[in-house]
Amino acid sequence: MVGVVIPTRDRREMVAEAVVSVLRQTRKPDEIVVVDDGSADGTAEHLRREFGDAIRVVSTPPRGVAAARNLGVRSVRSRWVAFLDSDDLWLPRKLERQLEYLDRHPELRACQTEEIWYRNGVRVEPRKYHAKPDGDIFFPSLHRCLVSPSAVLLDRALFERLGGFDESLPACEDYDLWLRLGCEERLGLVREPLVVKRGGHPDQLSRRFWGMDRFRVVALLKLLLREPPLPPAHRRAVREVLERKCGILAAGAEKRGRVEEAERYRALARLGAARVSEAGEGAGEALLSGTG
C-alpha cells in the first residue's frame, strides 16, 4: 500500500493541481492525505468540494511544513509513504516506476526520482553540483540538500524510526532528515525525471528565510550528538562542513554590523556538539533563538 502526504498552506489552486497529478498516477495510491497547515484562503473547503472522498483533508493550526508532514504520516496506514509539496507535480508513472525499482532492489527501503525544474514558468537545468547521488547519499548531501521530498518514496517504518522531520526547524528540515537517513540507509535513484518542481513564487521557504545555512548548521550539530556516534570519517566530514558554513554565516553577520552574532557562529564552529549538548531537547530552537 502507498500513502501520499501533501502539506500545504494558502496555495488553494496549486495544491489542487498537485492532487490531480496524484490522481492521474498509473499506479493509484491507496491513500491521499492533504494536511492544511492553517490556510486562510479556504484551501480545505475548496479541496473537499473539488475531490470529495478521493482524498482526506486534515486541517491544523499553522505549525510549519515539518509538523504538517509528520501529521500526514501519522494519518496514513500504508507501508510506503510518498510526499508531494503543494507547488510540485508528479508525472503519471512516478509511483509505478518507483515501486518497480524497489521490487528490483529489495535491500532498499527508500528511493527518489530525477526531476524537471521550472522557475517562474521557464524550464531551467540543474547545475552539476545538484546531481542526485545513488546509494550512499551522506557525504554528497553534507554541502547541500540533494534529496527532494516530492521525489521520495520510503518505508513508513523507517521514517518513524528516524523520528520524522524535526519540527523545531522552520526550514531545511528535509536536509536534516535525509542526512539522518544517510547515516543508516542507502537511497536508491530512479534515473527518470518524474517530478515537476515549480519554483520562483514568493512564498517559497528559500525566499521566506535569509541565510538558510543557519538551519543546516543545526542539522550538522545534531549529527555530532548522534548516538551511536558517527564513524570517524563521517564526523570529520561533518565538522569540516560545519566550520565552513559557520565561517560564511559569521562573515555575513559582520557585513551587516552584527558582531555578536558573528562571534556566536565562530563559537559554534569551535565548540561543535558541546553547544547542542547544553541546549538539550529542542536544540534547533535554542540555537536559532540566538542567531536570528
Question: How is the topology of this model organized?
Answer:
Elements: E1 2-8, H1 12-23, E2 31-37, H2 43-51, E3 56-60, H3 65-74, E4 80-83, E5 88-90, H4 94-104, E6 110-119, E7 122-124, H5 138-141, E8 153-155, H6 156-162, H7 173-184, E9 188-199, H8 205-208, H9 213-224, H10 232-255, H11 259-271, H12 273-279, H13 283-289
Parallel strand pairs: 1-2, 1-4, 2-3, 6-9
Antiparallel strand pairs: 4-8, 5-9, 6-7, 6-8
Helix pairs in contact: 1-2, 7-9, 9-10, 9-13, 10-11, 12-13
Would you write up a description of this structure?
- With 292 residues, this protein is α/β, with parallel strands linked by helices.
- Helix content is 45%, strand content 18%.
- The chain is built from 13 helices and nine strands.
- It has helices spanning 12-23, 43-51, 65-74, 94-104, 138-141, 156-162, 173-184, 205-208, 213-224, 232-255, 259-271, 273-279, 283-289; strands at residues 2-8, 31-37, 56-60, 80-83, 88-90, 110-119, 122-124, 153-155, 188-199.
- Strands 1, 2, 3, 4, 5, 6, 7, 8 and 9 form a nine-stranded mixed β-sheet that branches.
- Helix 1 (12-23) links the parallel strand 1 and strand 2.
- The radius of gyration is 19 Å and the shape is globular.
- Mean pLDDT is 90; it is low at 275-285.
Helix content: 40-55%
Number of strands: 9
Strand content: 15-25%
Q: Outline, from the CA principal axes?
A: globular
Distance, first to last CA: 42 Å
Task: Give a quick precis of the structure.
The chain is of the alpha/beta class.
Keywords:
13 helices; globular; alpha/beta; 45% helix; nine-stranded mixed sheet
